[in-house]
Amino acid sequence: MDVKIPIPGAPPIIFNLEEMKIEMLEALERGSHPNGRLLNGRLVVVLATPDNGTSRDIAIGLSAIPAGLSTEEHSHPAEEIATVLSGNAIIYMDDVPYDVKPGSVIYTPSMVRHRTQVTDDEIYLSWWMYAPAGSESRWLPSRGFEEPIATR
Fold first, then answer.
1. Residue environment code for 117-152, b if the CB has 16+ CB neighbours within 10 A, otherwise e
2. Is residue 108 part of a domain?
3. What is the CATH number of the domain that holds 122?
4. Following DSSP, what letter does each residue of 50-104 receive, concatenated?
5. How many domains, in total, are found in the chain?
6. Does residue 17 contact residue 127 with C-beta atoms inside 8 Å?
7. 143 falls in which pLDDT band (50, 70, 90)?
8. In the list 6, 65, 144, 146, which could disulfide-bond 124, CB 3.0-4.6 Å?
9. What is the pLDDT confidence band of residue 151, given thresholds at 50, 70 and 90?
10. Smallest Cα–Cα separation from 82: which of 114, 55, 52?
11. 88 located within any domain
């Protein structure tokens, strides 16, 4: 997926979810993506971030989690919105489980502890946004994969 996000004031860009799904599955199989980080068997890709000038206030990315895996419990200063593209999972927010499936849109408030546990044999793919940007820093090689600073 050759996505070029324009500078502020330029025309918007259209992301194609089907193309993104295919690219993420291929990248997961390869074990790498030029804009992503492989961590404990799962892949996170940052598509837009102020860090590289592709956005001003928001971060946009994709996650791929193979069957049987889970994210680590974490929290971050940004609010997060994620849309499930494929796969089924349970998302635990402050220890409360929520079943999600393709088409689910998840809102995670700032600093809420959360993790995603894949619950079937299909790779779980999600498209996510952080606002304000900054929490994506842990996925950026240019930022040394640093964890965001909690400010609440």
1. bbbeeebbbbbbbbbebbbbbbbbeeeeeeebeeee
2. yes
3. 2.60.120.10
4. GGGTS-SS-EEEEEEE-TT-BPPPB--SSEEEEEEEE--EEEEETTEEEEE-TT-
5. 1
6. yes
7. low
8. 65
9. very low
10. 114
11. yes
- Considering the domain boundaries, does residue 70 fall inside one? yes
Cα–Cα distance, 152 to 82 (Å, whole number): 21
| Residue-number span of the structural domain to which 131 is assigned | 17-142
* Three-state DSSP state, 106: strand
pLDDT in tens, 78-113: 999 999 999 999 999 999 999 999 999 999 999 999
**Residue 148 pLDDT greater than 60, yes or no:** no
d(CA 131, CA 96): 23
Q: Which residue has the tokens 């025309």?
A: 11
Residue 7 — pLDDT band, cuts 50, 70, 90? low
> Are the beta carbons of 130 and 136 closer than 8 angstroms?
yes
pLDDT band at 150 (very low <50, low <70, confident <90, very high): very low
- Mean pLDDT, the chain, integer: 85
pTM: 0.83
